[in-house]
Write a structure and sequence with these properties.
six-stranded parallel β-sheet, metal ion binding, BDH-like, 384 residues, butanol dehydrogenase (NAD+) activity, 2 domains, Dehydroquinate synthase-like, alpha domain, ADH_Fe_C, alcohol dehydrogenase (NADP+) activity, alpha/beta, Rossmann fold, two-stranded antiparallel ribbon
């Protein structure tokens, strides 16, 4: 196991009815900006619960944060926060809303051009405090310090993170997910699955605890993912899905192990260029990535085949192929396409995708730093 430091300051408040506890989590004199996406939190009653819990506090609502939150929209929220003298942010939504709120929290207090937080990875020394009410289990953003933001005009999608951008708290009420469309549930399962794989399917470092945690989470997703689509009001299923997605990216399973993230970087470029959902790009890239890099990941792919998919027969190569196929089949069972052609995208844009990777400095990705632009090209080609 590699050396590590693990610290996660986010308080998790889990369970049905826990939105009412917001009153105890936010300072009584806070001026609150509620950030959200579309109108679903109004129609499903979540916004009303939040507003009731805020009581007599001064609050405002900023809506319209996109599924891939854009710099342009978030800077409008920054302007509103300054205009209204906001001192606490409350994200109500899924990972995109929470990612966007992290950026707002940092940008409000940033000295300089806020785009530098993304383009130049400028240090974030301070951020406005914020909490979240999670309504879509997927990204783990409710319990980590990172985010990914798009710039419409530039065609960029870039990550950021800081010790200053952990949520103070996050409320996880599984009942808030009951009204989600099947597409969002499916995307959430795929997103969480790939988050785990990025931290698990690398190379062995005798991190038995992290491996077993990761394998347990992956198996849980294979069980509850299809159930979540079939039984949208099954509280136990939604509770397990929500908690799994949080644990997938709160730092725990990634402590002391090598991490990959090449699948995410290649996926980001597909989203920026073609507008696909984040999870859709992960489902496209991951099976291709594992196929192209099967030799460098051989030991962990064999472990993954046996422990997650119960594949124990056949040669090593046959077991690895079967595990990659099982992964693809699982995503497709979740109704998420796994090839570019499933989204009417062919190979014509591969050159543009590679050029964007080069522009963003993504020329030595992966746990070994050996995912060159040529390897990335092979992955995109394999994904067609």
């Amino acid at each position: 196991m590699q050396n590590f430091t693990f610290h996660n300051p986010t308080r998790i408040i889990f369970g049905e009815g826990q939105i009412a506890t917001l009153d105890a989590q936010i300072p009584a004199n806070a001026r609150v900006l509620i950030t959200c996406g579309g109108g679903s939190i109004k129609s499903n009653g979540v916004l009303a619960q939040v507003q009731a819990a805020l009581g007599d506090r001064a609050w405002h609502v900023f809506g319209g944060i996109e599924p891939n939150p854009t710099y342009e929209t978030l800077m409008e929220a920054v302007a509103l926060a300054r205009e209204k003298n906001i001192d606490f942010l409350l994200a109500v939504g899924g990972g995109s809303v929470i990612d966007g709120t992290k950026f707002i929290a940092a940008a409000v207090k940033f000295h300089g051009e806020p785009w530098d937080i993304l383009a130049k990875q400028a240090e974030i020394r301070d951020a406005m405090p914020f909490g979240s009410v999670l309504t879509l289990p997927a990204t783990g953003s409710e319990m980590n310090n990172g985010g990914v933001i798009s710039h419409r005009a530039k065609g960029d999608k870039l990550p950021f993170r800081s010790e200053a951008t952990y949520p103070v708290f996050s409320v996880l009420d599984p009942t808030t997910t009951y009204s989600l469309p099947p597409r969002q549930i499916a995307n959430g399962v795929v997103d969480a699955f790939v988050h785990i794989v990025e931290q698990y399917l690398t190379y062995p470092v005798d991190a038995r605890v992290q491996d077993r945690f990761a394998e347990g989470l992956l198996i849980t997703l294979t069980e509850v993912g299809p159930q979540a689509l079939a039984e949208p009001h099954n509280y136990a299923v939604r509770a397990n899905l929500m908690w799994t997605a949080t644990l997938a990216l709160n730092g725990l399973i990634g402590a002391g192990v090598p991490q990959d993230w090449a699948t995410h970087m290649l996926g980001h470029e597909i989203t920026a260029l073609h507008g696909l959902d984040h999870a859709q790009t992960l489902a496209i890239v991951l099976p291709a990535m594992l196929s192209v890099r099967r030799e460098s990941k051989r030991a962990k792919l064999l472990q993954y085949a046996e422990r997650v998919w119960n594949i124990t027969e056949g040669s090593e190569d046959e077991r690895i192929s079967a595990a990659i196929t099982a992964t693809r089949v699982f995503f497709e069972r979740m109704t998420v396409g796994t090839r570019l052609r499933d989204y009417q995208i062919g190979g014509r844009s591969i050159g543009t995708l590679i050029a964007k990777l080069e522009e963003h400095g993504m020329t030595a990705l992966g746990e070994h730093g050996d995912v060159t632009l040529e390897v990335s090209r092979q992955v995109y080609q394999f994904a067609v």
